[in-house]
Write a structure and sequence with these properties.
single chain, mainly beta, Thrombin, subunit H
Length: about 120
């Protein structure tokens, strides 16, 4: 088993949906979607630490199997602690080439709390 595979944790996509509440009013709701595995590591670079001091949320690098369709502003939850993250880059910008011996993609993400709509 590779080091990357050993670092993977269960996560679930969280999708915004519009539903009717019990009063017949349209409201936003967050609905669980597909489960996937991801390795999530905190960005500890100097630039990230400076950004955090200036009020930017915590920044992370998220590694998934190549081909998993994470897109800009997708939201997901890590099972182990229930924390939610929002993707801030596109995965197609950072995937391994086809001839690589491993097959991963990476995105940047921020810690993000689901809005109370």
């Amino acid at each position: 088993m590779s080091l990357i595979a050993e670092s993977m944790e269960k996560c679930t996509m969280v999708n915004r949906s519009v539903v009717l509440d019990r009063f017949g009013t349209y409201v936003n709701a967050w609905v669980d979607g597909v489960e996937f595995d991801a390795a999530i590591t905190e960005d500890s670079t100097l630039a990230a630490r400076v950004a955090e001091k200036e009020g930017v949320t915590e920044l992370y690098t998220v590694t998934v199997q190549k081909g998993f369709p994470l897109q800009f502003h997708d939201v997901f939850r890590r099972h182990s602690d229930g924390l939610t993250y929002r993707v801030t880059t596109n995965i197609r910008d950072n995937e391994t080439p086809n001839r690589a011996s491993f097959s991963i993609g990476q995105v940047r993400a921020e810690r993000w709390d689901l809005p109370d709509d």
